[in-house]
Amino acid sequence: MTTARKKFIERLDQAMATAEKMVPEDLLCSYKGVLYPVIDCSAETFKALESFEARSDDVLLVGYPKTGTNWIIHILRDLVTTSAKKNEEEMKRMKQDEEIVEYTYLEFGDPGKFQRIKKLSSRRVFATHVFPHMLPTSIFKNNVKILMVIRNPKDIAVSYFHFSNSMPSLPSFQTWDEFFNAFLHGKVSWGSYFDHIIEWNKHFDDENIMFITYEELKENPNLGVKKIAEFFGFSVTDEESQAVADRSSFQTMKENSHKTHGAFGNVLFRKGSVSDWKNLFTEAQNQEMDKKFEESLAGTKLGAKMNFTSRERRMANHRKKFIDLVDKAIAVGDTMDRDDLLFSYKGILYPTTVCSPEIFKALESFEARQEDVILAGYPKSGTNWVGQILTDLVTTSAENNEDETNSLNDEELEEFPYLEVGDAEKYQRMEKLPSRRVIFTHLLPHNLPESIFKNKAKVLVLVRNPKDVATSFYHFTNGMSPLPSYETWDEFFTAFMTGKMPWGSYFDYICEWSKHVDDENVMTITYEELKENRALAVKKIAEFFVLPLTEEQLQAVADRSSFQAMKENAYKTHGAFGNVLFRKGSVSDWKNLFNEDQNQEMDKMFEERLARTKLGGKMKYEVYCKA
To answer: Do 485 and 557 fall into the same domain?
Structure first.
């Protein structure tokens, strides 16, 4: 540990020891209407700050508390050091600077600090949590480059709550509800989060300011570090940039936190995750925060950059379309006679409440795009599950691209994802959807519009072993009023084996799609391999559709799409239909229904129809379907 780091830790420890002796009422002071911790800040320091003379080559980081400023300070210092190593004189000056131990945050410390930091050589690294009007005018006059980091308010609130309750220098809160109310009304240290964003938003177009989100740094740290280095003009290679990103990973910093920040490190580096807010927010608080964001920040450029709910909103809007159509279908299905629930089109049965001959006729002229993302699977093969994975992958990929991110706001254009479900006019509306469109279908390949194959749209074909498909389809039909129910499993089994099912024969479906296995625009995957190694499968899917995601992003998608996570959110994502849709999601559940005769009959059918097809071979029937 360097002498400078040791002195820094000693100063922190001393400040915390002083704070522990204070009564809660004395922990905060007010300066120009904003609360600050008295251990760190004072009116005298703020007054002295006004005359601080910034240099044009200073490196300034701005961020509201708990936006990740300590993390990014580490990145900035590492970039400065890495860049300076190429110049012997700069390294010598940096060595001398180690003797001057000052808080990085401008508003921390005593008033005399500004005289002392004059002795620091360039490039000086500073940070601050304050509003722009609280900074010395020299920062803007001298065109100091400023990096501002922003983070979604829900995660900030949760992180700030834990931080406040662990830091002696800040007032603690007896309950999360108490803190939430204080946060929402700006009654916390450094003032209102919303006011902070609004004020800095006025500087969005300043050429000397770069804005970055905590979330994008988490999702792609190497790209974030490269952008920061370019903005400040740091001379680092791609390899050096990657090394900085590796050294500043949350895990690395957490492991070294005691060395870098003493006992304070465990408080500072708690989780560093995205969406931790879900562990504390109630539904009412969630809605209240959404409303506050909409009223205060939704119309600002920083609010838009934050993608506050870009994934959540797109997924939610996608779910709303799903829930609305299914609820309507269920309501209509409840009033219909069993014999009227299905109709036949070109020899295949379809549910009357969601499909029609007019839809199929209109579908023929649907114009697919090469960049469309298409998922094909027989019913109960896991299309809703894999559909969520695809939607999440596309949305996450779009968030990495500013142009594509803007398209995520076209929420009103969203359509029910199944190509053959809806009304005949949907295909005209789909023309207005920005790329990349995510489309699902249960249709046989020859019933799809020719443009899909002509334009080489990429198709992911999902297959599942027939025994589990039959078992799942049986429970599904008996739980969904738009589909005919069956009095017994035996009755359903006969219908399944003879293809008298909605969307036709499972065996015909696999046979027909097997003819396209070698098409360059087609990828096949099994439900079972997704269950066995979801992370690997998600990575393969992303590669097939050329969705450039980092390993961390891919893992996050895999985590969000676990069956358990989807089942827990089933009502939220699919309404009352969710309990029917996400029943078990297991492999080999067929053993609970099949009798020995049915088992042998299915084995025989598979051997005759599918065993020698490429999809049949991919299914590992011997592994998953033998008793």
So the answer is: yes
DSSP 414: -
The pLDDT tens digits of the residues spanning 11-41 come to: 777 777 888 889 888 899 999 999 999 998 9
Domain boundary among 305, 330, 365: 305
User: How far apart (Å, rounded) are the C-alpha atoms in residues 112 and 4?
Assistant: 18
Assess contact for 551 and 245: CB atoms under 8 A.
no
Q: What are 363's two structure tokens?
A: 């579908």
Domain check: are 238 and 358 in the same one?
no
Q: 589-598: list long-range contacts, CB under 8 Å, 24+ apart.
A: 589/468, 589/471, 589/472, 590/465, 590/467, 590/468, 590/470, 590/471, 590/625, 591/627, 592/471, 593/471, 593/474, 593/489, 594/467, 594/471, 598/490, 598/493
Q: How confident is the model at residue 223 (pLDDT cuts 50, 70, 90)?
A: confident
Taking the CA of residue 287 as centre, how many other CA atoms within 13 Å lie in the half-sphere pointing to its CB? 3
CA angle 459, 464, 466 (to 5 degrees): 130
CA separation for the pair 236, 281 (Å, rounded): 42
The CA radius of gyration of the chain, in Å to the nearest whole number, is: 29
Q: Can you tell me the distance from the alpha carbon of 457 to that of 466, in angstroms, rounded to the nearest whole number? A: 27
Looking at 40-152, list the stretches that DSSP marks H as alpha helix, in order from N- to C-terminal side: 43-49, 69-84, 88-97, 113-116, 137-141
* pLDDT 10s digits, 277-324: 888 888 889 889 988 998 999 888 898 888 665 455 555 555 566 677
Examine the pLDDT at 1 and tell me if it is beyond 50.
no
Eight-state DSSP code of residue 31: E
Whichever domain contains 368, its CATH number is 3.40.50.300
Tell me: do 323 and 350 sit in the same domain: yes
Residues 260 and 346 in one domain: no
- C-alpha 465/C-alpha 506 separation (Å) is 10
Residue 258 lies in a domain: yes
Residue of 484, 508, 499, 492 lying closest to 351 (CA atoms): 484
Non-local (6+) Cβ contacts of 401 within 8 A are none
Active site residue 442: yes
Q: Which of 442, 446, 475, 516 is catalytic?
A: 442
- Amino acid making up residue 133: H
Yes or no: say if 461 and 524 are a contact pair by the CB < 8 Å rule.
yes
**Residue 385 identity:** W
- How many whole angstroms separate alpha carbon 222 and alpha carbon 367? 38
- Report the share of the chain in percent with pLDDT over 90: 56
Strand partners, 36: 29
- What residue numbers bound the domain in which 479 lies? 315-624
> Which phi-psi region, left, alpha or beta, contains residue 492 (left: φ > 0; alpha: ψ -120 to 50)?
alpha
- The structure tokens 């676990």 sit at 562
C-beta of residue 134 within 8 angstroms of C-beta of residue 64:
no
Task: Determine, yes or no, domain membership for 310.
Answer: no
Residue 437 DSSP class:
P
Identity (one letter) of the amino acid at 282? T
* In 151-266, beta strands by DSSP E: 209-213
CA neighbours closer than 13 Å in the CB half-sphere of residue 349: 19
Say how far apart CA 205 and CA 210 lie, in whole Å: 9
